[in-house]
Design a protein that fits this description.
Largest sheet: 12 strands, parallel
Number of strands: 35
Radius of gyration: 22 Å
Structural class: mainly beta
Length: 383
């Protein structure tokens, strides 16, 4: 036993000391990005200096980190303005890849599926990165073993192409999708977030298309599965292509578990016509979903529980003028609001603890909630 532990320790130390950091620049000094990826070993980090990087990249190492500068001008991966046959600026094909502090812009493909990042398997971790003016910010293909985690990142500026149906996030039938502390804004005709994952977690984000936004669904959980949507600001613009804000099961699916938990979100409809804040297409799924909708704040005209069976408790309707200042994104309830502390206790709902643990923190990231809370207000903010 002792000999085995010593062997494990020696192996761990060897892996730790073997990891290198490779420096790259757009000019190729000391290395080009392509050369660094070819040279990198398992566990290495590639540091991108500021500047504009062009050309496509394939990432298939088992474990690799690519990181932009912490300060100053960003590292920008820029697409060719003329659509080509390549479907992505960077493609992740297996492995465990981390992308941090990198900006992706202008991905175009001749088939309309150009992506800043394309995931074709493996585990992809995206942190503090931005995706602007891409046909799809991140797109993943179908692989039930794949996982995607997005933290503190920004997606926006969908190309304004009529009929393009470009999504800021377009996720195939992967195993797990997790999105936290991120912003999704300025879509056009397509959806802000589209997920077909077996497990989808969307927590503490700012998913807001602006007062005149022209996106379709803000969130589409198209293939059902086990989904949790908690602590988000979800805003639909007056020029939306579809009056549904959160859709579940639109494409049908074959995942073994269909369950939807919608908890402590602030939904906002900027149009004068009613929105369908939540629509569940249960008849398209192999098994009917269990729905728990708890302590959501529904701002503007619309319906919430129509057509969805399940547990609906503590959800409140409000007007924009009932918030602190919706025009400056202060979506919390004022201290004298009669809706404050009117929510139900989310810590034991049908045997599940659905209490939020954080809030979105502008411009990106999250702020932890104080523990020990006994009173709960509807919506994404408890402040």
């Amino acid at each position: 036993m002792r000999r085995a532990l010593v062997g494990m320790l020696i192996g761990w130390l060897a892996q730790t000391t073997a990891a290198e950091t490779l420096i790259v620049s757009p000019q190729g000094v000391p290395l080009s990005l392509v050369a660094a990826v070819a040279k990198a070993a398992d566990g290495d980090t590639i540091e991108l200096l500021s500047g504009i990087y062009t050309g496509v990249l394939l990432l298939d190492q088992r474990r690799l980190t690519l990181r932009g500068p912490a300060e100053g001008k960003p590292a920008v991966v820029f697409g060719d303005p003329k659509p080509g046959s390549v479907s992505a600026l960077w493609t992740v094909r297996g492995g465990d890849i981390t992308v941090e502090r990198i900006e992706f812009r202008g991905a175009r493909a001749s088939n309309g599926s150009g992506a800043g990042l394309r995931q074709e398997g493996g585990r992809l971790n995206v942190r503090n990165s931005t995706f602007f003016d891409n046909e799809h910010g991140i797109m993943s293909t179908n692989d039930p073993a794949a996982e995607l985690q997005i933290e503190a990142s920004v997606f926006g500026l969908a190309p304004k192409v009529v009929g393009g149906l470009y999504h800021l996030l377009n996720i195939g039938r992967i195993g797990k999708l997790s999105i936290t502390g991120s912003r999704f804004q300025q879509g056009f005709e397509g959806h802000l977030i589209k997920s077909r994952a077996r497990e989808t977690f969307i927590g503490y984000n700012f998913i807001h298309d602006g007062q005149r936004g022209g996106a379709s669904y803000e969130i589409e959980i198209a293939a059902g599965g086990d989904a949790t949507v908690i602590g988000n600001v979800i805003g639909q613009g007056a020029d939306s292509q579809n009056r549904v804000v959160l859709a579940y099961g639109t494409e049908g699916g074959n995942w073994p578990l269909n369950r939807l938990r919608v908890v402590h979100n602030t939904f906002i409809n900027y149009a004068w016509t009613p929105a369908w804040f939540l629509r569940v297409f249960g008849d398209r799924l192999r098994s009917p979903p269990g729905v728990l909708a708890i302590n959501n704040l529904l701002v503007g005209p619309g319906v919430f529980w129509m057509g969805a069976s399940g547990t609906f408790e503590g959800n409140r309707h409000a007007l924009r003028r009932m918030l602190v200042d919706a025009d400056t994104y202060a979506f919390e309830l004022p201290v004298d609001s009669f809706w404050r502390h009117s929510g139900v206790d989310p810590r034991n709902i049908e045997g599940s603890d659905l209490a939020p643990t954080a809030e979105f923190q502008w411009p990106v990231g999250t702020q932890a909630l104080q523990p020990g809370r006994t009173q709960w207000s509807p919506g994404a903010y408890q402040r």
